[in-house]
Design brief:
three-stranded antiparallel sheet; 214 residues; mainly alpha; single chain; two-stranded parallel sheet; globular
Length: 214
């Protein structure tokens, strides 16, 4: 389910109590969902990359953990959400520890849910049924729950994100080619990697700046 998939599987299987994970586009959260563990992507700036870096992945990336439970997630967040030299900014922390807050009732929440396709592909009926079941359970718990379909062009968003994600990919791959002596071509690359390389070569700094602003 993502680059932290092995970590999530190891934690939920009981091989280790907790494991490292990183997340830009779901690499902590998706494996946790598949494996039944706890996967949180902390807010930007909550976990420091200092002093070696200010941010990673243009601010989209974070580093954290895979756990078995939200209790463990909260305890680890207390341990590692400590500002370091080199942080570009600080974000405020709650007055209480995350571990203490995790043990308290959440109160009545406003929760919106949707099964509207975001990428032009219908949502699997089993997933629709599961989401509707969870929505019902949350309503029975006293939360304010409503179906709310976002006005969101998923395909356009992904195309813009691809430009941000793969800007400079050609430079990295070509640098590796020079160092390793391995030529770039259909004999050495998977088809999808070659397609990404060709796409990134067409991107300009103006493309990246425009996509990032939008």
């Amino acid at each position: 389910g993502g680059s932290s998939g092995g970590a999530a599987a190891a934690v939920v299987a009981g091989m280790v109590p907790i494991a490292h994970g990183t997340d830009i586009a779901g690499s902590i959260r998706i494996p946790a969902g598949w494996c039944g563990g706890g996967g949180l992507k902390p807010s930007r700036g909550r976990i420091s990359f200092g002093p070696a870096l200010d941010e990673n992945g243009y601010g989209l990336s974070t580093t954290f953990v895979q756990t078995k439970s939200i209790r463990d997630t909260a305890a680890m967040l207390d341990c590692v959400s400590v500002p370091q030299v080199g942080d570009p900014f600080l974000i405020p922390k709650p007055a209480e520890t995350y571990a203490a807050l995790a043990g308290k009732p959440a109160g009545r929440l406003r929760i919106g849910w949707s099964v509207k396709p975001l990428m032009g592909v219908p949502v699997d009926p089993e997933i629709v049924a599961a989401v509707e079941t969870v929505a019902g359970l949350l309503a029975d718990m006293g939360h304010e729950v409503a179906e709310a379909d976002p006005d969101f062009d998923g395909l356009a968003a992904v195309r813009k994100f691809d430009d941000v994600w793969f800007f400079g990919f050609d430079q990295r791959l070509e640098g590796f080619s020079r160092r390793s002596g391995h030529a770039i071509g259909p004999d050495t690359l998977e088809p999808v990697i070659q397609m990404i390389h060709e796409h990134s070569r067409r991107l300009t700094p103006a493309d990246f700046s425009l996509r990032w602003r939008n």
